[in-house]
Write a structure and sequence with these properties.
Creatine Kinase, Chain A, domain 2, 442 residues, 18 helices, globular, 43% helix, two-stranded antiparallel sheet, alpha+beta, 16% strand
Length: 442
């Protein structure tokens, strides 16, 4: 942390950083973040502690070259080369990979990790599954991962949304990161991400089961986010008429949940980062790592850090996860495709309110209707645009769109297929089989 005599962050210095993040198109890369649930044979989440728990799994990975990060005596993260493994509050497992020029690079890294994880698990009673929401456990049955920030988040978010703890301990998602050239390019991509948010949710809806019964939603995960914390989730006004300055001001004024000063976590009690930056805390002022930490606690459907993160997809199998990254690469990395996709997004956005569109996507998935089309028909228009973009900018990635195209052609979200199988045999074994997170799905 900085003191009064050291250079301080200012709004101007942070704004200058945002303007430095652009890259020429020939240097654009893509990245993926893949969360997954770890379930026991009875469908309950693998706890952090205990025999064959999450801590045991992390420890086994350290014997294969992964470097641990500890909080006290507990391993809470791993790192190897440019990849990292982190834990969500309920023990959900996430791989954040390195950036690659090709989506194939993202897929290859993910497959290698899935295979490594499978070797480590062996015959242990641990089943990685691709689901947007844990299918059997109630939140009080899921232990908290021993991370200091999660204790503070638990208390803060417990006051801001009825399903905030469900978000923390019960959900899993796929996220993808993309570069931009400058402020104008970033604005176009953010506008597209936000306007397509409901359609993205429908395309990858994969959380139809809660407490061992149909949840009433194709994406219960998506619904959970509407009941978490309106100050830091959803579709912030700063994404409209986007500029770096508007986005920065939004982030500076979102109430902070926590700080970490002199190695100790503390409740920020809702102070803004702007207030800390301007006035300090006991003579201590934030530095760049504090800003980066704050950014991890703001969760809109798309966000700008050093890249644009698109965040609105349930955890799905590896083939559809690859399709998610390829879809947005095609939309973002070809100017002609971006223009065409913005036209589709504008037509979609003209149908009802955003809240209505998002509610339809969460409840009905691709079978829902917005305007005069099902969301599957809207998805057909969008993937056609992306296919053209990939054909022009990265034809080697075209095969990765095929599983997504097949899903769209079925007219159903992945959740509908999973729910159909579960209703025929409503047992944990059905979930472990149908949602298995394994390389054969690519």
């Amino acid at each position: 942390m900085s003191t009064n005599t050291e250079a301080r962050l200012t709004r101007d210095s942070l704004l200058a950083e945002y303007h430095s993040y652009g890259h020429p198109s020939e240097e654009w890369l893509v990245g993926g973040e893949y969360e997954r649930h770890l379930l026991r044979p009875d469908g309950m989440p693998v706890p952090y502690f205990g025999d064959y728990g999450v801590a045991w799994l992390l420890e086994q990975l350290t014997h294969r070259g992964w470097e641990p990060t500890r909080e006290g005596e507990h391993i809470i993260a791993l790192k190897k080369n440019s990849a990292s493994v982190t834990l969500e509050p309920g023990g959900q497992f996430e791989l954040a990979g390195a950036p690659y020029a090709s989506v194939h690079g993202v897929v290859a890294e993910t497959l290698a990790f899935v295979e490594e994880l499978s070797e480590v698990i062996g015959d242990a009673p641990i089943h990685p599954v691709a689901l947007g929401y844990t299918p059997f456990a109630r939140m009080e049955q899921i232990d908290w991962v021993p991370k200091g920030r999660y204790k503070i988040m638990r208390d803060h978010l417990g006051k801001t949304g009825a399903l905030a703890h469900d978000m923390m301990k019960g959900t899993c998602a796929v996220q993808a990161s993309f570069d931009f050239s400058d402020e104008a390019d970033c604005a176009r991509k953010m506008a597209l991400s936000m306007k397509l948010g409901p359609l993205t949710t429908a395309l990858f809806a994969n959380s139809p089961i809660r407490y061992g019964k149909p949840s009433g939603y194709m994406s219960f995960r998506g619904h959970v986010w509407t009941q978490t914390d309106p100050a830091r989730t959803g579709f912030p006004d700063a994404a409209n008429n986007f500029t770096f300055a508007r986005w920065l001001d939004y982030l500076l004024d979102v109430p902070m949940m926590f700080t970490k000063i002199n190695g100790e976590w503390a409740d920020a009690k809702g102070r803004s980062f702007r207030d800390w930056m301007d006035n300090g805390i006991d003579g201590i002022y934030p530095k760049n790592p504090d800003w980066e930490l704050h950014l991890t606690s703001v969760f809109p459907e798309a966000r700008v850090k050093r890249q644009i993160e698109v965040r609105g997809a349930d955890c799905v199998n590896l083939a559809l996860s690859a399709g998610f990254v390829a879809l947005f690469k095609g939309l973002f990395y070809c100017r002609k495709a971006t223009d065409a996709a913005l036209e589709v997004a504008a037509q979609l956005s003209a149908c009802g309110t955003r809240e209505e569109r998002f509610a339809t996507a969460c409840k009905d998935g691709l079978q829902g209707t917005v305007g005069d089309k099902t969301l599957a028909k809207w998805a057909e228009l969008l993937v056609e645009v992306s296919y053209g973009g990939i054909s022009r900018c990265a034809p080697e990635d075209l095969p990765l769109l095929q599983p997504l195209i097949a899903q769209i052609n079925s007219g159903r979200s992945p959740a509908a297929d999973l729910l159909e199988a579960f209703l025929k045999d409503p047992t944990p074994q059905t979930i472990l089989r149908e949602a298995a997170y394994h390389p054969q799905s690519v």
